[in-house]
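From the shared-data thread, chain only:
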Amino acid sequence: MRHAIVAYVVRKGHSRDAAEDVAQESLTKLLRYARQGRPASLYGLALKIAANSLIDLIRGETRFGAPVDDTFPCEAPLPDTVVADRQQLRLLSVALEHIPPLRRAVLVRRRVENQSHARIAAEMGLSVAAVEKHVVRGLCDLRKAMEDRGSRDRITS
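Structure, as tokens:
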């Protein structure tokens, strides 16, 4: 009986998986009907139930529309990522305000404006080694401030 139902659904142009689902549902309903009383034709009733189940399946597919196409996913970040990034940016801004002005100026010119060590040194009257040390110490200061602030936030949460 199951094979007949599967063949019926496949002949109607549906996939083998859909046919298996319809056959499972049809046989379950057929067993319920058979417990209530003996139908005139089990085979005929099974195919009628399969036809109705197929209609229900089609209605269910059209009700929810076409499946979402994942070929071109949205490139925008998730909302929780945006919130977390904004919090990190706020922490970074506060930390940047608290480092010494010269160190901050050197760090911003190197990391934000992407200027070379030599150019920064020439324009600010420092040696290249001093610029390198300011960048390293500035990054260390920022990292420490971010870690301290992050651990304080986790404790208060």
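Residues 93-156 form a domain with the Arc Repressor Mutant, subunit A fold (CATH 1.10.10.10).
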